[in-house]
Amino acid sequence: MSRPRFISSIRTLASDYDAMLCDAWGVIHNGVELIAGVEEAMINFRKARGPIIILTNAPRPSSIIPAQLDRLGLSSDAYDAVVTSGDATRAMIERHLPAPAFRIGPSKDDPLFENLDINFVQLEEAGFIICTGLMNDDREHPYEYREILGHAAELRLPMICANPDIIVNWGGRRIWCAGALAEIYKELGGNVAYGGKPHAPIYEQANKVIDRIKPGVAASRILAVGDGLLTDIRGANDQGIDAMLVTGAGGIHDGGGDHADVSAQLNEAGVHATAVAELLRW
């Protein structure tokens, strides 16, 4: 694969694009605070080039994300809209209804199910599984779920994974996500469907939003920015969208600013980034 372009400022390549899909956790914030310089970069890109859609694997409806960003201090002038894995997941859930569901995940993800007529039941009575995460991600490990996931696999229940992320960095602490449970379920022979990155449904929704704001933007004129090789970068590659990898914002990318190391990790993951930057800066 060709080597990426290592840059220090998004301004150096902004003229090549008319819209941006920007990851939230690991690019805009670390779960606790905004990343320095990111708000300025987003505002300037919007003014100079076009819309920014925040594309996040949060297992919640997009309608609740702006309030969370407000609390972190991100100006509403920094983005045009939010599209979440939760949005895509709700559409997938509706296709399974009225079958009853078995739920794996914490109560904080309850907004995902608002106004959906779902009957949650015990595993043996379920027609499918909805996984939004670990019940207690502060202290649990995904392997603690192997027994129940094994039983679900024996029952051949399809799983909808509301957040394909394996792990996120929350203020310097690693937090396991629903994607980690989904990976175990697949290892056990289970069938998993995903709404979020790197899978197509979330991009289909994002493209509709871009077209509503700025009609006619081609995929070749969209830049995806993220820190996840297997979510943000692979998803962009699969959609024919250029990708910029962010390496130093406290996200999940393990490589530092060393060009050879970053290039090696991209190659090992089988993905390509058009550009690599330590942070999203203007």
From TrEMBL:
InterPro entries: HAD-like_sf, HAD-SF_hydro_IIA, HAD-SF_hydro_IIA_hyp3, HAD_sf
Record keywords: Hydrolase
Matching CDD domains: HAD_like
Pfam short name (any one): Hydrolase_6
Domain of life per record: Bacteria
KW Protease (keyword) present: no
GO cellular component annotations of the record: cytoplasm
GO molecular function, one term: phosphatase activity
NCBIfam families, per the entry: HAD-SF-IIA (TIGR01460), HAD-SF-IIA-hyp4 (TIGR01459)
Identification of the protein by name: TIGR01459 family HAD-type hydrolase
